[in-house]
Amino acid sequence: ALIAANPETAITFALPAGVMPPLELGAARDDAGHWRIASSEPTRDLYALTRWATEQALALDALDVRRPSLEDVYLQLTADTAAAVSAEAAPRAAAGRRGRRS
Question: What would the 3-class secondary structure string for the chain be?
């Protein structure tokens, strides 16, 4: 299993109604109406976001930058490991079923 060298940082913010961030930032809207950028390069992405907002004379209300906690990283690693084990076991189980004849 691959371990992410730099787990994604979450950059969240709110914009005025009807305003959308630039597509190149890859922001997605969450259930609360805030925008979220999952970033592996938070300094670069935060700079691009704040530069854009400044150029547009927009406030980034509720701006928040969060790196994953140790618990988040652990849960991701264990989920990735469990998925890898399941993926390896599936072909062996199928091969075992094909080899059995009734």
Answer: CCCCCCCCEEEEEECCCCCCCCHHHCCEECCCCCEEEEECCHHHHHHHHHHHHHHCCCCCEEEEEECCCHHHHHHHHHHHHHHHHHHHHHHHHHHHHHHCCC
